[in-house]
Amino acid sequence: MPATDPQLVIGRIMEISAGELTGDSSKLYLKLRFKVNKVEGKVASTTFSGITTVREHASRMVRKRAEKVDAVENMATKDGWELQVSALGILNRNTYSHIGGKVRHLIIAELRKAVSKLTMDEMIEAVVSKTLQKKVREAGNKIYPLRAFDIVKVEVLKAGGNN
Predict the structure, then answer these.
(1) Packing angle between helix 120-129 and helix 131-140, nearest 10 degrees?
(2) Are 125 and 27 in contact (CB under 8 A)?
(3) How many domains does the chain have?
(4) Beta bridge partners of 99
(5) pLDDT of residue 53
(6) Residue 105 domain-assigned?
(7) pTM for this one?
(8) I need a labelling partner for 86 at 20 to 30 A (CA). Which of 25, 31, 53, 132 fits?
(9) The domain containing residue 130 runs over which residues?
(10) 3-class secondary structure, 56
(11) Pair type for strands 13-17 and 68-76
């Protein structure tokens, strides 16, 4: 949205799809958010604010006779960013609740282990390229077959030291 004064742009959240950034149309469902923190002339500096998945993408993964496992957890990257990561796993069949709980705990543990080893830039790249999701899905398959797994939302709670 246009602004008459450059100072009015500070604090706004800009959203762009990963498909537009990477040129890969299969990633149009993934939205990256950036917050404007400084304006110099016609150039606005931004910091990463989060990732969201289009609601229809997550809804499409859920089917009849399949169990949905939601996992939401606060995590920290190697360079000090504090994040809230929301993930969605779909089991092949409806199952006992204790199996879903075990899968949820494993998803959280795998995400926490992977995120703690990555910087924020590496984390964004891993989510957009789906390497993080693939690693967690493979680990989850050891307990019960996951039909689908995706990171639905990443929200920045506290920016790292250099921003």
Answers:
(1) 70
(2) no
(3) 2
(4) none
(5) 92
(6) yes
(7) 0.84
(8) 25
(9) 64-158
(10) helix
(11) unpaired
